[in-house]
Amino acid sequence: MFGKLFKKKENQEIELYAPVDGEVIPLEEVPDPVFSEKMMGDGIAIKPSGGNIVSPVDGEIVQAFPTKHAVGIKAGNGAEILIHIGLETVSLDGEGFTMHVKEGDKVKKGDALVDVDLAVVGEKAASTVTPVLITNMNDMEALQKPEIQQVSASEDVVITVK
Questions:
Q1: Total domains, the chain
Q2: Catalytic site residue 84?
Q3: What is the separation of C-alpha 23 from the centre of its chain, rounded to a whole number of angstroms?
Q4: Is residue 98 part of a domain?
Q5: Is residue 67 part of a domain?
Q6: One pLDDT digit (tens) per residue for the chain, 162 residues
Q7: Hey, how many other C-beta atoms are within 10 angstroms of the C-beta on 90?
Q8: Residue 18: inside a domain, yes or no?
Q9: Considering 24, 64, 80, 84, which one is annotated as catalytic?
Q10: What is the CATH number of the domain that holds 100?
Q11: What is the pTM of this model?
């Protein structure tokens, strides 16, 4: 009964840093309605210029897809982050991806998550565009996206969520 009353609120603000070098594009411009219509959550997308995907926050890996095309991270404030590498990449069944984490791993901002061979993904998938989403927006208070065009992994803030 008193658990909710005394439970520490997880509403602090966190900053998500770019998980990969590249060009930021609005989620609405991603050529896949699952992302552009925000069916899975709100966020941004990055056209990667490099193939090293790193953790955008300190947190815990809650999903490491067997097809290696996506990673889910739970941040300290409860935000659930999905990094989906490329579009229609699940069909590659791991080809072109090297996963460096597993479910349950604790990660720090900048830790290696996945290496991607952009040539393979660019040739065999619909796109290399990488959405970065907050999948539990109903649990969050606010989301801000700074106006930024080019980002460097672990250096530039791409989303602030509270």
A1: 1
A2: yes
A3: 15
A4: yes
A5: yes
A6: 444 444 444 458 999 999 999 999 999 999 999 999 999 999 999 999 999 999 999 999 999 999 999 999 999 999 999 999 999 999 999 999 999 999 999 999 999 999 999 999 999 999 999 999 999 999 999 999 999 999 999 999 999 999
A7: 16
A8: no
A9: 84
A10: 2.70.70.10
A11: 0.92
